[in-house]
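sry for the spam today, last one i promise. C-alpha cells for design, 150 residues
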C-alpha cells in the first residue's frame, strides 16, 4: 500500500509541475504591442551621409596615416557608398555594398587593386564614431582601418 501512495504522490507532483509549466507558457504567449526580451533585434542604425576621419594602413613602415572620407546611402538595412583616403597608401573612390544590423556594418569593397574580388569592410558604429576594418580575403591582405565621425 505504501508503494501505491508514493506513486500517487509522485504523479501528483509531476501533474502539478506540468500544470504550472503549461500555465506559464500560455501566459508568455499572449499578444503584445512591443517586442522585448533577448530575441529582440536592435534597431538599425542610420549611417547615411558623409563621414570624415583618418585612415590607418597596416604597413606602418612604408605608409603613413591620412585623411579619410566615406559617403553612404541607406535604404532600410541596405547600405551603399564610397570610401576614400588621400594618405600616401590611400585609395580613391572604393565602392561599398553591404548591410547594417543594429550597430554592425558589413559589406564588400571594390575599385582599387588592393581591394579586388572578395574584399570586405566591417565595423561598428558607436555614437557618432564609425570604425571600419578593411581586408582582401583572397590574398589575406589587411587593408588597415578607418576611424570616421560625422
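last one done:
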Amino acid at each position: 500500500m505504501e508503494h501505491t501512495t508514493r506513486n500517487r504522490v509522485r504523479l501528483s507532483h509531476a501533474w502539478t509541475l506540468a500544470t504550472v509549466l503549461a500555465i506559464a507558457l500560455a501566459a508568455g504567449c499572449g499578444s503584445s504591442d512591443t517586442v522585448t526580451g533577448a530575441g529582440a533585434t536592435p534597431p538599425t542604425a542610420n549611417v547615411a551621409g558623409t563621414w570624415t576621419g583618418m585612415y590607418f594602413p597596416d604597413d606602418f613602415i612604408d605608409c603613413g596615416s591620412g585623411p579619410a572620407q566615406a559617403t553612404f546611402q541607406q535604404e532600410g538595412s541596405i547600405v551603399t557608398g564610397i570610401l576614400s583616403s588621400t594618405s600616401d597608401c590611400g585609395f580613391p573612390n572604393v565602392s561599398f555594398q553591404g548591410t547594417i544590423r543594429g550597430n554592425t556594418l558589413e559589406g564588400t569593397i571594390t575599385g582599387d587593386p588592393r581591394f579586388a574580388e572578395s574584399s570586405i569592410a566591417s565595423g561598428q558604429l558607436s555614437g557618432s564614431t564609425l570604425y571600419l576594418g578593411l581586408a582582401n580575403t583572397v590574398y589575406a591582405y589587411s587593408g588597415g582601418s578607418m576611424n570616421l565621425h560625422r
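Residues 2-28 form the longest helix (27 residues). ok im logging off now
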